[in-house]
Amino acid sequence: MARKKRQWSPYHYNHVVMRGNNRQIIFSNSADYQAFFRVLQYAHQKYTFSIVAYCIMSKHYHLLIRSPEVPLGKVMAIINRRYSEYFKQKYQYTGQLYERRYFAELVPSPIGMLTVSRYIHRNPISTNTPIVEKMEHYPYSSYQHYKYNIPSHHSFLDTTLLKTFLPQNSHAYCHYCEEEQNEQLMH
After folding, report:
1. Which of 48, 54, 55, 137 could form a cystine bridge with 123, CB 3.0-4.6 A?
2. DSSP label at 59?
3. Residue 128 CB neighbours (<10 A)
């Protein structure tokens, strides 16, 4: 049976998730995370894309990504192939690194962007046993760039977009992410 062709819109962001095969660890240490960032940067040099939120966990990663010039599948093929090659060479790993092809869901609206980015940023504190006490303490997430207004040295990260959806003040987005309950946006 043929796989369903993915939808691509150059105007919309997608929530992308990729898991390790059998939910195995695919990022073991800081060198692995840094290698993944190098892969993202390499892919960005080949095809322009922007990411507004990311979280790289030990067994999976999340990206809120838009590819305006080429189908997202081309970007993801480079990212997943290059990281898989790195992992297999470093750990003498054979076989399939990823569980299946990446999950991608089109995010059609600004409210959807906020909801998905909040979900992505809350990953390190939403596990059964939280990895960190506060989201901004997790080093492999874009949240610290929002919380502390830290410019990214990665050209693919765009932290301006999400803040524009919550115009009350510059801290509105972080307040929304930090709320325990997913309440109505900024009442």
Report:
1. 55
2. S
3. 4
